[in-house]
Amino acid sequence: MGNLVIIGAQWGDEGKGKIVDILAKDANIVVRYQGGSNAGHTVINERGTYIFHLIPSGILYRGTTCVIGNGVVVDPGALIEEMDRLQPLGIAFGKNFAVSQRAHMILPYHKAIDRASEQSKGSRKIGTTGG
Q: What residues form DSSP beta bridges with 32?
């Protein structure tokens, strides 16, 4: 397979995860290039049902390396929780998984700033997930 990019034309819920799952069987590398853990997708295949938020669904296939790229916003706590949830389902993380050193990080203080900013707006709140 040559290089192939799956790009969403909407805000999600359009089947990107399913397409990546279908193509990942034959891919050497699957890279998530943007987004964060606030959304996700469910993959249902012959092995079972898997819920992903940060980790590329290509992790389901031996021989496929999965990378969280530099355009992804990584919440380290959410990443660890996701890995902990997937490992008992037989998903192994080792040389087949990497996180770009240039990936963006969201830390607890970022969430605290978002909540405080939203609360300070009173009736003019915009409705962030943290507010």
A: 68
How many domains are there within the chain? 1
- DSSP lists the bridge partners of residue 98 as 67
On whether the CB atoms of residues 127 and 114 are closer than 8 A, the answer is no
In angstroms and rounded to an integer, the radius of gyration of the C-alpha atoms of the chain is 16
The active-site residue, picked from 21, 41, 53, 84, is 41
**Residue 68 structural domain:** 16-124
CATH number at residue 118: 3.40.440.10
Q: Please give the Cα distance from 131 to 117 (Å, whole number).
A: 8
pLDDT tens digits, 23-76: 998 999 999 988 888 778 888 888 889 999 999 989 999 899 999 999 999 999
13 a catalytic residue: yes
Pick the catalytic residue: 13, 26, 53, 75? 13
